[in-house]
Amino acid sequence: MLSTLQNRAARSLCSLPSVCRRTLATHVPAPTASGVPSTSSAGSTSANGYGTEDGPLRPHLGIEVNPNHGLYAFFRKKEKDGKVWYDTVEAVDVVADKSGRSWTAAELRRKSFKDLHTLWYVVLRERNLLATQQAEARRLGANEQALSLWAKAHRCRKTMARIKYVINERRLAYEGALKIHNEQREQALKAEDSVRAAAEKQAELAAAKEEKVRRRERGTADVAAEGLFERIPEAETVKA
């Protein structure tokens, strides 16, 4: 009897849709400080009191963004009447266009290594900005040739190639000067070695000459001593 009652209770629970059926998850809006649901600009609210008729909207969190963030460098900064904005794709303006020609090798040769390093990254930043505009124009279906983006990017590439060329010239000049310096240093070391060897040889010759003179003097003294000892017995025999 007890088992029959348990089976009936289980069937009754499974018949309820909220218990045995799996429903989709729903989003519960966060309560506002005033307890009043958010409204749209027209004053209409959705059924759950969170979104509008066009769809749900995210609440603005009011997070401050660094205005000097590095990602802003990928977009052209414009400023007018104290208002700053960024353009993803610049419109063609022949009058206000400030883009010029590429740097020449003669101009770059007069720059220091620090200036070339700085100029390289300035041109690289401009090239990244133009690549961003090309990608955005391609996404919007605009004509890249009409925006003259390809020509500007080509001038940037020419400037960067010439910077590499000038730096390579300096590298080759440095290696050539270093090679000449090493050759001159080796020649100077060889000259010093030859001078040292000549001085040592002269010292050896002088020492040998002195030794020869010393031996000659020593030999003369020995000969005189031997002659003296030989004459003494003869004198004694004569006296006898």
From TrEMBL:
Annotated region (Disordered), positions in chain: 29-61
Lineage: Eukaryota, Fungi, Dikarya, Basidiomycota, Agaricomycotina
Family listed: Belongs to the universal ribosomal protein uL29 family.
Molecular function terms from GO: structural constituent of ribosome
Any one cellular-component term (Gene Ontology): mitochondrial large ribosomal subunit
Protein name: Large ribosomal subunit protein uL29m
InterPro entries hit by this protein: MRP-L47_sf, Ribosomal_uL29_mit, Ribosomal_uL29_sf
Composition bias type Low complexity, residue spans: 29-51
Coiled coil: 191-218
Entry keywords, A to Z: Coiled coil, Mitochondrion, Ribonucleoprotein, Ribosomal protein
Organism name: Trametes coccinea (strain BRFM310)
GO biological process: mitochondrial translation
Subcellular location as annotated: Mitochondrion
